[in-house]
């Protein structure tokens, strides 16, 4: 039996003049999560001046996200699908940057940097930042872990399948 499962992710980015909505639709063939994965990406730009109601307070333009809080949210989102993951207390985190240690289900350890540009691998051990690395930034923890860990992909697919089965059971 082939079961396809769709996961929709909305990302909203904004600046003083522009709102950018990104819509990702991930379709998984749950019988084999490693294959037949389709990602559909749609991006929409919206100009706030087109609307009679302002969506954002102009005084918040200089507001910077607290990346340590963002990092805690990242950890809580995917902790179920990795062996170990936590925000580093040994590396200096600030409003603009935070570091996350993660061990994949395969036993590989990484130190991740989270900033406004996204997430990237900065070291291949906990609490290690290798300045000579120039690794790719990822917009989400899901896309980063998807490239690093087949075990993550499997756990994520299984979790989605379990939720779908619970929904089906509750509907009957």
List the helices and strands and how they pair.
Layout lengths: L3 E11 L4 E11 L8 E9 L20 H12 L5 E4 L9 E7 L5 E7 L2 E6 L17 H8 L1 H22 L1
Antiparallel strand pairs: 1-2, 2-3, 4-5, 5-6, 6-7
How would you describe this protein?
- It holds the Pfam family GSKIP_dom.
- GO terms for molecular function: kinase regulator activity; protein kinase A binding.
- This protein is of the alpha+beta class and 172 residues long.
- It folds into two domains: 1-63, no CATH class; 64-172, copper amine oxidase-like fold, CATH 3.30.2280.10.
- Helix content is 24%, strand content 32%.
- The protein has three helices and seven strands, in the order βββαββββαα.
- It has helices spanning 67-78, 141-148, 150-171, and strands at 4-14, 19-29, 38-46, 84-87, 97-103, 109-115, 118-123.
- It is elongated, with a radius of gyration of 18 Å.
- Mean pLDDT is 75; it is low at 1-20 and 23-63.
Q: Order of strands across the widest beta sheet?
A: 4-5-6-7
| CATH superfamily descriptor of the largest domain | Hypothetical protein (hspc210)
How many beta-strand elements? 7
Distance from first to last alpha carbon: 20 Å
Fraction of residues in H or I helices: 10-25%
Count of individual helical segments: 3
CATH architecture of the largest domain: 2-Layer Sandwich
Order of helical and strand elements? EEEHEEEEHH
InterPro entries: GSKIP, GSKIP_dom, GSKIP_dom_sf
Family: Belongs to the GSKIP family.
Pfam families: GSKIP_dom (PF05303)
Protein name: Gsk3b interacting protein
């Amino acid at each position: 039996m082939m079961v396809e499962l769709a996961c929709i992710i909305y990302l909203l980015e904004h600046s003083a003049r522009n709102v950018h909505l990104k819509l990702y639709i991930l379709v998984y063939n749950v019988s084999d999560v490693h294959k037949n994965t389709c990602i559909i990406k749609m991006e929409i730009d919206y100009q706030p001046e087109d609307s009679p109601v302002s969506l954002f307070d102009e005084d918040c333009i200089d507001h910077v996200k607290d990346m340590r809080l963002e990092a805690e949210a990242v950890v809580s989102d995917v902790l179920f699908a990795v062996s170990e993951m936590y925000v580093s207390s040994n590396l200096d985190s600030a409003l603009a940057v935070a570091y996350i240690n993660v061990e994949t289900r395969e036993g590989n350890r990484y130190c991740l940097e989270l900033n406004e540009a996204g997430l990237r691998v900065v070291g291949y051990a906990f609490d290690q930042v290798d300045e000579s690395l120039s690794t790719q930034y990822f917009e989400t923890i899901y896309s980063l872990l998807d490239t690093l860990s087949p075990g993550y992909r499997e756990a994520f697919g299984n979790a989605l399948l379990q939720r779908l089965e619970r929904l089906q059971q509750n509907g009957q």
